[in-house]
Amino acid sequence: MIFYAWTVLSGTTTDAVVGLGITGDHEKAKEDAEGPLLDGRAFLAMIEAVRPVMAAHSLSPAYLRTGVAWLGRRDNAGGVTWRRFFAQGEDPDRIDP
Q: How many Å apart are CA 86 and CA 81, to the nearest integer?
């Protein structure tokens, strides 16, 4: 099962994180992250595909990055442009557990 963790950043050190969340729907993650970008509260958004795991040392639930992510920024047309990227050394086809 894949989830999408999103974070929206303001670009200032006093209020760096504008919003964050996690959802099982990639489109919902994009919608949630785009709001602060479009209204000017944020300048950068990031969505990472993650999967649920259990931490070995504590058996606590956690999320493991899959290596695929998206960066979103406002564009000149009044929308948001998303760019997909892969963590170095990760297989871009490996997003399913």
A: 17
Q: Which residue type sits at 23?
A: T
CA distance 17 to 13: 9
Region for residue 59 given its phi and psi (left: phi exceeds 0; alpha: psi -120 to 50; beta: otherwise):
left
What is the tally of structural domains in the chain?
Answer: 1
CA distances in angstroms from 88 to 1, 2, 71, 85, listed in the order given: 22, 20, 15, 9
pLDDT above 60: residue 96: no
Range of the domain at 46: 3-86
pLDDT at residue 13 is higher than 90? no
- Fill in the amino acid letter for 49: A
* pTM of the model as a whole: 0.82
The Cα 80–Cα 65 span in angstroms is 24
